[in-house]
Specification:
Blueprint: E1 3-9, E2 14-21, H1 25-33, H2 35-38, E3 49-54, E4 61-67, E5 73-84, E6 88-96, E7 108-118, E8 121-129, H3 133-141, H4 144-152, H5 155-160
Antiparallel strand pairs: 1-2, 2-8, 3-4, 4-5, 5-6, 6-7, 7-8
């Protein structure tokens, strides 16, 4: 399993998932910048993602949906706030309605992804910061922590494939 830690911090309203991979930083970066690779792991195995829009640039937006085992769809959005390739990505994320508009009642989270080279390996940290304790608790009850762990567990197979130029 690639995930080495999962830390909830209710005082900081954050969840941090840390994983390590047998791949160089630039290769791990590709699983974030390429939507076809991203959708192969973003979401747990039983809820694969499909990105219908992906503007990988500061200020860019992404729209996606995850399809559940019974065919149900959960829509989501990202607004990319910072890119420092290949080491840092930041975005706001949240749930979307059927038209792709943010569901304001669910709030948004701010996500910071950092990639650090450790010899020939890469350590990836994904930190989600929530707007309130209520929002964080709701997300944990919905299975966000387990879902992120399962999603990250799919990355090794992608990285084992030949690097994309």
């Amino acid at each position: 399993m690639t995930v080495i830690s999962s830390t909830k911090n209710p005082e900081a309203l954050s969840l941090v998932i840390v994983a390590e991979f047998d791949a160089a930083v630039h290769r791990v970066w590709q699983i974030w910048e390429d939507p076809r690779q991203l959708e192969r792991w973003w979401g747990p195995p039983t809820y694969p993602a499909t990105f219908s829009r992906y503007e990988f640039t500061p200020g860019g937006e992404a729209s996606y949906y995850m399809t559940g085992p019974e065919g149900e769809k959960a829509n989501g959005w990202w607004r990319i706030t910072d890119i420092q390739a290949p080491h840092r990505l930041e975005f706001d994320e949240g749930f979307a309605d059927d038209n792709g508009a943010p569901v304001e009642a669910m709030g948004a989270a701010h996500v910071t992804v950092t990639l650090e080279g450790i010899g020939v390996r890469t350590r990836m940290a994904v930190q989600s910061e929530f707007e309130s304790a209520e929002q964080m608790n709701t997300m944990m009850e919905m299975g966000m922590e387990e879902g992120m762990r399962e999603a990250a567990g799919q990355i090794d197979a992608i990285l084992a494939e030949q690097s994309v130029a």
